[in-house]
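queue> pop job 88
queue> type: inverse folding (structure -> sequence)
queue> payload:
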């Protein structure tokens, strides 16, 4: 996972980008805008996960409310990963 600005860019198996948002850095805005649009276009929700989304999911799975979850994977990908 790579965190920059207000984004969470998660790299999946084989080096593929799974999710992210608003991660344009200085000098790479054009390329990063294209990558960002590509990521968003591949999600069911039409948006990328934010830090808040990832934090909320992490807080939930670490809480007592998720005590019945065992051996689970929590995908915070806005629908980019479907299982």
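queue> result:
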């Amino acid at each position: 996972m790579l965190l920059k600005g207000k984004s969470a860019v998660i790299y999946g198996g084989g080096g593929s980008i799974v999710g992210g948002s608003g991660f344009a850095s200085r000098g790479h805005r054009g390329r990063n805008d294209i990558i960002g649009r590509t990521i968003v276009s591949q999600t069911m929700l039409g948006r990328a996960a934010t830090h808040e989304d990832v934090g909320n999911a992490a807080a939930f799975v670490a809480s007592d409310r998720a005590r019945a979850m065992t051996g689970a994977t929590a995908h915070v990908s806005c629908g980019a990963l479907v299982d």
